[in-house]
């Protein structure tokens, strides 16, 4: 089917009635890479002309990613401001006029983003629910109705241990069936405490966790923002993407089952993959896993049969390489048109490759540099935004390419363009642009329809939510459905299950959650339950099995002196005994442990991995607010070399900087950084105290003080930071930074109490 569109040069008033009868969704651009998952538009134009040098309209928002377009609305992830005033924006605009329909601000916090690297990714629109999904730089996962009503908000950093990186590459959620998925580097709790590139799948209507998956290896070496591509294979709906541990992976979209991984790089891989005739094509720019050469484009033969691995990790795919080309790109993804690949390199060169053989057909220099942005192919032309802010329009041929137009935009261009209804949309670090493509008519190819296999016999249970946090005196209900072997839902409502406590055989900490199921199938945490974490197994009347896991957390006040921990684990490199950190704490595993220091059991920063010389731990849920934190802290070292230790209080970091001899308040250091002088002596205990006060008008003050342990608490705060828009809630946390893993930091006698 071909859907015909009218020219943008025609009178909108004369055509209004006719337009109501057309399918406005036929050529929407609801996702980062478009309806074909490869940067190619379905639109074709009659009498197409060059872009006008002047845009039809611009919008005052900066961006480094890709807008999406749905039902005559442009959904933009951008940012505004420079330093303390910088906020990320989720904006919905009228596609014809650029007029703002609604906009929400998403503050950054506790991120490592530098140089205003924001909005490197894209929102996603679900055509079924017509909802917008976005993950912010700080890992705030939001869902909004098209009219601006918030559906849910999940702080992935605090609830699941999502990390941030200075490169600030975020990517885009993807949707399959009733699940919306996002992957990044996560350091959760328990067995999922070690940092790894994990994919989390949430119910797209409720935000409840459905499943999670770790198809790669531990540890990762970088972040990765590769967007998965999805297909049906071996009766399953699977996705392929690249990871922060340098692999291409294959994961079931319905249940998170990992099938295989293939290492291709010694660093994280960011470019998205493309599917071509049973092959998968990927590219990276770092050192190859099997040689010292840097960069390669590779085609691999996808296995016809997918088998779940017996252990926690997926199977390594071997002998699958079809061809290899010595070509590299850090984060620009290939565009596939028929049997031809178009690839931008970091040096601003456009390459044309035969997708069947890997043969280089031609290359064309467009600019001196490119980062992140990928070409967009529309009706025989490639639209290429370059890092210098130049939009280059290229007509590719069999043996060469012609540059047909160049338009200089303000700022830098780092995001791929989008197109819908004959209008090109492109972001820059200064403005958002809308350029009409002159034409006398538009036709749209029919979008491919995904082949969804029918469900077979039920083989397992899927329990939603798959992970829970329950406060003392609270309870949680569940939805239980059955799945077939390929992950498809057989029954939406399985009744009569039997629940029992469950300890995975691979668990290093043999622990159970202090909670019980009542007759209504609700998991109940008693008012006097101890802080704990563990798993439960459900068995249906016909023998199907599923598991969930959860944390039972206490309400304020909270205290921890670590005296009850048994030091029964061996640290062979240091020759000491230790205990794993409190199991319910997010992000603690392998970054911190409990050990003895000067005859007392204390919380200590580990030297386990240099990648995590800086560690953040969240010790209580993200909804808490108006609390005071206090603990005793110490840094090893000398007058010339010390480390840092501090608190996370309501999304602010209050940190004792050893080498700087400062008590510092920050969130993102480029957004907020206030210091107070304090002389720090190595190997000396101090008492650190913090609180955040929020005023009725939304402003607030962040307070911190430090003094020698055992001395009287001073009345004055060591440092105060006034903020115009204060964070109103957030998880209490602990921060430690041992530079190059040289000097350890310690904490003891932690208390978290309501503000007085």
From TrEMBL:
Entry keyword set: Signal
Segments forming domain Pyrrolo-quinoline quinone repeat: 90-281, 318-391
Domain of life: Bacteria
Signal peptide start and end residues: 1-26
Pfam families attached to this UniProt entry: PQQ_2
Nucleus is among the record's keywords: no
PANTHER family according to UniProt: CELL SURFACE PROTEIN, OUTER MEMBRANE PROTEIN ASSEMBLY FACTOR BAMB
Protein name: Outer membrane protein assembly factor BamB
Source organism: Prosthecobacter fusiformis
Native organism taxonomy: Bacteria, Pseudomonadati, Verrucomicrobiota, Verrucomicrobiia, Verrucomicrobiales
